[in-house]
Amino acid sequence: MTEAILLVGGQGTRLRPVTVNTPKPMVPAAGVPFLAHQIARAAAAGVTHIVMATCYLAEVFEPYFGDGSDFGVHLEYVVEDEPLGTGGAIRNAAQRLTGGPDEPVLVFNGDILTGLDIAGLVESHRAADADVSLHLVRVEDPRAFGLVPTDSENRVLAFTEKPQTPEEIVTDQINAGCYVFRRSVIDAIPEGRPVSVERETFPGLLASGAKLYGKTEDTYWLDLGKPESFVQASADLVRGVVASPAVPGPRGEALVLPGAEVADGAKLSGGTVVGAGARIESGAVVRGSIVLDGATLGADTDVTASLIGARAVVGPRTVLDGAVIGDGALVGADNELRTGVRVWCEAELPPAALRFSSDR
Ligand code: GDD
Ligand code: MG
């Protein structure tokens, strides 16, 4: 049996995802709250017990995930009164673990979508008799991440969270936010105060000579920190670019959930999701986007890589590209909204109010 801790909290995730009202980990990706994919993937890899470490009220998660039995796991929640940081959250969640001091404990960040071979990471952790094993990925720009250089035997040499100077950027290998800890290593994290696993625990372990291994696996990996990557993740799940047992339907160009209405003349592609009660009118072209429950895309709208909030209404001929439209917002006809634009929940934009292209 393998146990896991899922980190879902902190300041970042407490914020609404810019405009949509739902707490970020519960915004649907490929038709279900994003966390469902992580839980289902862990279960498929043989994880049987998950402790969700959160500083939200458990009411956010419990009605959907319950005791985890729908996912084939035993799911428990621990709620921090004040955010304890990543290390403090892991330490706090460990009170619910049942394994012995040498048992491996999987820990994963709640804002990552990955195709990592989880069971493989646990296996190589055991084989190396490691204290901590970290999944690493290579990225073009590592500055927003934890840098993890390794030696020829994959032993971790340093851990530099969010490097500040060019000299600190010694590798393009970063912490992918999924670890296996030896249980006793978690128990040694100080209790009852905020601890950053990245800034305090990992550097401390390295200084004390502990065995930290990095596993650079070239696999699907996406950090969902930005709404545009969230939309991308959803599209990739729908198309099957990354596998998740939690996607509620067959893989393909679009996932139309029960109760959605798509007019005959509308075209859906690129892993678009249309939520329950949403309406896509004739002539609409929708690529790689998320249309949440009850939203309407009017006739001849042209929508790419966008997130349309629950009950939002987008008027005819409006163009959206890389846009996030908040829950209940009204975007009038003949608007053009591009790259990075956010329309706040319930906001109203009159017809023909905004455009990016030159006057026609
Ligand atoms: N329960 C709890 N309490 N969870 C927390 C807390 C806390 O106080 N603080 C952060 N978390 C959770 C977040 O919800 C997220 O799932 C995870 O811990 C990581 O925190 P982020 O705030 O998202 O960190 P980051 O994205 O800047 O950096 C982390 O992830 C990168 C990969 O995406 C680090 O682990 C980096 O080293 C890593 O490269
Ligand atoms: Mg993050």
From TrEMBL:
CDD domains recorded: NTP_transferase (cd04181)
Q: Which keywords label this protein?
A: Transferase
List residues of the Mannose-1-phosphate guanyltransferase C-terminal domain.
252-331
- Pfam families, A to Z: GMPPB_C (PF25087), NTP_transferase (PF00483)
Q: What parts of the sequence cross the membrane?
A: none
Keyword Lipoprotein on entry: no
Tell me the first and last residues of the signal peptide. none
InterPro entries tied to this protein: GMPPB_C, Mannose-1P_guanyltransferase, NTP_transferase_dom, Nucleotide-diphossugar_trans, Trimer_LpxA-like_sf
Pinpoint the Nucleotidyl transferase domain residues.
4-237
What Gene Ontology molecular function terms does this protein carry?
transferase activity
Sequence similarity: Belongs to the transferase hexapeptide repeat family.
Q: Which PANTHER family match?
A: SUGAR-1-PHOSPHATE GUANYL TRANSFERASE
Q: What is this protein called?
A: NTP transferase domain-containing protein
Q: Which organism is it from?
A: Streptomyces bambusae
